[in-house]
Amino acid sequence: MPNCPTCQKTMSPGFLGSESMIGGSKWYLERTRLAFGGEEVAKPNTFGMVYIAGYRCRDCKSILLQY
Predict the structure, then answer these.
(1) Which residue from 2, 3, 52, 54 puts its CA 20 to 30 A from 9's CA?
(2) How far is residue 20's CA from residue 43's CA, in Å, rounded to a whole number?
């Protein structure tokens, strides 16, 4: 398990889940009003869900994602 980059405590493994029937999860350089543009980082599954593996620190609320 990795240590949290903020507080150095051990992080817990898991998945960040989101719903996105069109285009999957995307990375944006800034917030947008609509979900246009962005770089796709994960495709949705058959049911429209996107799961990105990563780790989280419950103490300082940091998330480390791997795509």
Answers:
(1) 52
(2) 9
